[in-house]
Amino acid sequence: MASVRVRKLVKKFDQTVAVNQMDLEVEDGEFMVFLGPSGCGKTTTLRCIAGLELPDGGEILIDERPVTNLPPADRDIAFVFQSFSLYPHMTVRENLAFPLRAVRTPQNVIDERVAAAARSLHIEKLLDRRPNKLSGGEMQRVTIGRAIVRRPKVFLMDEPLSALDAKLRTEMRAEIKRLQSDLGATTIYVTHDQLEAMSMGDKIAIMFGGLLQQIGTPTEVYDNPRNLFVAGFIGSPAMNTLPCHRAGNLLNILPSADSGDGKVVVLPVAPEAEARFGSAPEGKDLILGVRPEDIALAREPKPDFLPAEVYIVEPLGSEKIISLRIGGHVVKARTPPTFPATQGETLFARIDQSRAHLFDAATEESLTCR
Amino acid sequence: MAIETSSTMTRATAAPDARTGGGKGTGMSDRAVANLFLLPTILLLVAMNLFPLFWSLYLSFTEYRADGNAAPTWIGNANYGEMLSRPLVWQSFTTTAGFVLLAVLLQLFVGFGLALLLNRQFRLKGIVTTLFLLPMMLSSVVVGLFWKFLLDTNFGLFNYLLGQVGLMDPKNPINWIDQKHALWAVVLADTWMWAPFIMLIALAGLQSVPPTLYEAASVDRASEWFRFRYITLPVIAPLLMVALLFRTLDSFKMFDLAWIMTESGSTVETVSIQVYREALRNWNTGKACALAYIVLLVIIGLTNLYLLLMAKVRGESHPDATPLFAGFADSGFGRLTQRAVPWVLGGFLAAGAFAAGGVSLLLAVGLIGLFCASLFYVPARVRNVLAYVGLTLALVAYLFPLAWIVLTSLKPFNLVNVLPPPVLFTPTLENYAELVNPSTSSAKDFPGQLLGSLVVGVVSTTLALVLGTMAAYAFSRFKIKAKNDALFFILSTRMLPPVVVVVPIYLMFRSLGLLNTHAGLILLYTTVNVAFATWLMKGFTDDVPPEYEEAALLDRYTRLQAFRKTTLPLIVPGMAATAVFCFLTAWNEYAFAYFLSGAKALTAPPSITASIGAGAIEWNRIAARAVVFLIPAAVFTFLMRKHLLRGMTFGAIKGR
Known about the structure:
The complex is a heterodimer of chains A (370) and B (656).
Chain A: E1 4-13, E2 16-26, E3 31-35, H1 42-50, E4 57-62, E5 65-66, E6 77-80, H2 92-101, H3 107-121, H4 136-148, E7 154-158, H5 166-183, E8 186-191, H6 194-200, E9 203-208, E10 211-216, H7 218-223, H8 228-233, E11 240-247, E12 250-253, E13 265-268, H9 274-277, E14 286-290, E15 295-298, E16 306-315, E17 320-326, E18 329-335, E19 346-351, E20 357-360
Chain B: H1 2-20, H2 30-60, E1 62-63, E2 73-74, H3 78-85, H4 87-118, H5 125-137, H6 140-150, H7 157-164, H8 182-208, H9 211-219, H10 224-252, H11 256-261, H12 271-281, H13 285-313, H14 326-330, H15 332-375, H16 380-409, H17 413-416, H18 430-436, H19 441-477, H20 483-495, H21 498-512, H22 518-542, H23 547-554, H24 559-588, H25 591-596, H26 604-610, H27 619-639, H28 644-648
Antiparallel strand pairs in B: 1-2
Helix pairs in contact in B: 2-13, 2-19, 2-21, 2-22, 3-13, 4-8, 4-10, 4-15, 5-8, 5-27, 6-8, 8-10, 10-13, 12-13, 12-21, 13-21, 16-27, 18-27, 19-22, 19-24, 19-26, 20-22, 22-24, 23-24, 26-27
């Protein structure tokens, strides 16, 4: 197993810059997830690491060895494609054996490794079928099996679960994570699904517009988003954002332009947040970011609680998402499923300021990120 | 589930319609529409294909001479016995088999090679590909004449070039139409004409391989050769099987090129020529029918062999037909046969190649193969350069006969046979002027024959298109009993060699007074084309989602109105493509036009060859006629280049 280092990676397609000065380090045995919306450069970065694309600038090292311009075959990596890309005319067994046959591995070694891979992926019964007789989940297992028989230095996976249905995706998520920790294999995993990223990754690299936005453990990127993009991309429902100004010890939440009564909602800065919010410039356009679970609701008025009208109630079974209107803005709050609420009534909401964030509205950078 | 919902909804909407009564009416039932749309096509095919087949089956058991007045007398299987014991018949089968083996093998090599060369991104790729495809859209008459001219013993450019490079003694030129060389001459022309067909299909196959398969393989450390051997070849094998099937059947019925290039088939007497001679020259009608039936059986056998092989390689792109021995294929013995077939065929091929060209041919093929294989181990950049060089050479070689005929048509008669060919000469349009303002009697007929070709082509195309579109719609949208069998029947009528049905059709036409009439040819070409149009249009109709029509039905349109307002406008482009293919088939057709017309041809193709007589051949005049005749084909080829793949495979392969 090995580390992967990417330094100042640049990749252009015609005039479009797909990856712009990317710097990344993946440690030995780490499960790294590249996360971002489509077109953010995550797949391109992965394909550059694999050697399927040649970069226009920068350097790639696998196991401290520069591989920037080597063909994929010489990098000792395995790649799991989004489209499965199983060889349609070969049985599962032949598909699994293909990477070994390509380098003339002795037949007994092939048999042994194929059997081992099939065992760990529970596909022993499928070995003599062809890909068109497999379900999506089974195909995905075979694809992963084809990667692990190689025993490569690094696993690269390009959205491997995106073609599966929701239930299967959850199952495979856990299974891939388990497999990765069993093998202790350095893995880079590309996805646009933040839930997948959060649940699987040791670290998450969030990308947007060809730029690395933030890299860190799932908890770090969730609790301390560096900018509005990361804050909005991770978490579901997304973080609530409220435009505001700071005036001394008060946060003035500006009313939404198109609805509400046009009145400024005044939020006094709580003592536990003074240290974090105090550095925010006064009079500048700011954005207050609050996660849905950081809004406490009460049915009766209480100190520090703002009145808010219930706009929509979404019972999800394990929890209830209640959309409220505060200053005309729709704010989502996560509550226990038993919390009673009906559309149209007025509730009282308190923002947990110790976990809230302030962003500069112009630069979108976080002012509270440590 | 979906079907249930739609049918209940149809019923729900039909009810208020019935109540409103007089206004619109509910129109015909789906069954009535299906019958109305299918019946004309089926009737035509039964009358023009099935009936003649049964008639000739009967005649094959009788003693009958169509030029005499005696009624057929039943003589049992004597005709079959006689035909099978006649050495000439066996010889013609051997000739045909040799021709099929050589031509198909060469076409496979050349076509596949061209496809590999073309399978890369470069500017003008579309144009270059289309230029390669041009020959197969031309009439076999024109192709046969070109090559006859190029291979002429004394004045042919081919022999001249051979002499120049020292491969032939100029004092002792090769006679390309003698017993020893004629087969090769026809094979050469046929390969030039049809290798592009294999190329077209192979190219589609190469482009259909998902690029991620190659990426996966390159990550898996597979070498270039390994990728070709274990990914490219297996993935395109089913498509190549389709191509080989089409080519084998077509080569097996070879008539035109052999007839035109070798003085009425004197040195390349294929089975088709044999049947024709027996039927319409010797007038041994019963015997000819017996021979035709033997040919038919061989063709059915060949078809099923291929279907069996295709089932083995298990592609998704084979036509919707199951081989006759599908059950047999799964039995133990069947599997054994399947495994043995490629080896046996390979053995035959090797033996045939050996018989035809000896050790040197096998060695040459082996060397070329080795050279091609070694290309996989040179760096990609070198290979690319080599590919472009190869492509340029191939293009020049391919277009040369076409350029030569155009040049010849611009030469005055005294320059035609001058070798070495003058590089600079004053082009003259007198050969073309001759067409408009004819001086000889045979030339006087040509404008009329060209017009005849046009009329026959346009009318038969229109009829076939209307019938085919209707039948295709019925097949595509309605549940029809034995649908696959019906479709297979329709396809198989198109595969029939002309000579198999020529006797009964000749007799039918004679008794109906259709011999040597435009109406007769129109009827015949409509029959030939309707099968093709049905298959092609079914593909195009299948592409239109039935939901549009269902929506219209819910909006209380009748089935016919819904068809006219929703589906029909969307298949018009498909109809245009189909029309072009039908028209070119009729325009280029030679064999039937030759069989069924009298002393004076009705259409252009037979008349172009008819001008070859004794004495000095005026190649410049012939070239001018050929050029005029091939212009529509060339223009349509360029217009239709996106649909060529689909058209040439009866819609079996859709392409992009």
